[in-house]
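Long-time lurker, finally posting.

We've been working with PilZ domain-containing protein (Celeribacter persicus) and I want a structural starting point before designing mutants. I don't trust myself to interpret raw outputs, so I'm hoping someone here can both generate the structure tokens and explain anything notable. Sequence follows.
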Amino acid sequence: MRDFGPDMWQVWPFTALRRRWFTLALCLVSIPGGPVVRTASADPSCGLEGWLTALNDSANSYVADLGTLKEHDSARQFRTEMERYERDHLLKQIHEADLGVNEKPLMDFISSRRHLLDLHQENWGEMAQRYGGDPRFGAQADSLSRYLTATPCDPTAPDHLNASDTPKDSLMARLTGGMQEISKIVTSMSQEETEPEPPVDPDNFDDFRPAGQKPARSTTSAMPLSPSGNVAFVLGMFTFITAIAVWIWMRCGIVQRRAIRYPCALPVVIFDGVLPVIGEVLDISQVGCKIESSHELQLRQRVRLTCGPVECKARVIWRNNHFLGLKFDRQLTEAELKGLLGPHAAQIAADRAEALAFGALAKEDDPPDDTGSGDPHPELAA
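Top reply, 14 upvotes:
Generated this for you. Predicted structure of PilZ domain-containing protein:
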């Protein structure tokens, strides 16, 4: 006879026990923080991912536009994206993401883009084109694009890119500090109230009280008036120092405004970090100059001026459609002014002497007047 194994009533207890263990395991899995081993999160923040995408696109656009009319616009956009965040904030955000083995390739990507920007700022256009055209540069950009596409960003990650450098105390920390101050004040007041008073005899008071139990009479101690404690003296010193500081500040402004301005017509090269532009200096002084140029610059933007042998940094004070007013970061020396204006003044003197000689020659070639003599008219002489 065929054996069909054990009876169902014998197998049922083991099956039921197995089902209970399986149900318990599912419950443990569903509990947060249960005994399930979870992998560490290695996703970058959404802000870091957006910046990496924008940096990659701007770098690729700059490499593609090298040698074309769009090169300067692409370079400006590339520099803006590269300098959007500070280095310390970027490093903190990257370390916070816990990227593991992907951290070193990401740092290499950022370093290569920084090197490309340095080549552009040092006017190495051919080297930048050769560096951007390297197949490894493009493979690096493609690898980053594939990584960012396959890896979702972490929206709950802390934002260190836009964080301020000065940490602010939390609400609980400020409340705790306030409660500590209040408790100190209350404790000092309670100690003053609980100090024991000396015994008092209601009949004799102070006459027959022992010397050790006599209360000390309250005597007002004279407060010496010192220069540091005299309020009037402090206010006077503060007023005097403030007046001196205001006078020095106004005097420096007057000296700068009274600086002699020399009219001239000198060619100058204006470099704003991206594009060098040629302009013409109309007048110059030791503290600033006026330039004729249609280059669009923002107010208080810093530029570098190169005029002959003199090179200095300046910032834009005012501007309109045709002229720029700039103030030098340092005052020009007398030797630098002479080096700039000396050839110009010599050329003006030569032109003036040539004009006078031409006028004298023209006067000699004039025909004689009708009277035939060089004497003035009799009526005019009278």
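Before you design anything, note these points.
The chain has eleven helices and six strands.
The longest strand covers residues 262-271.
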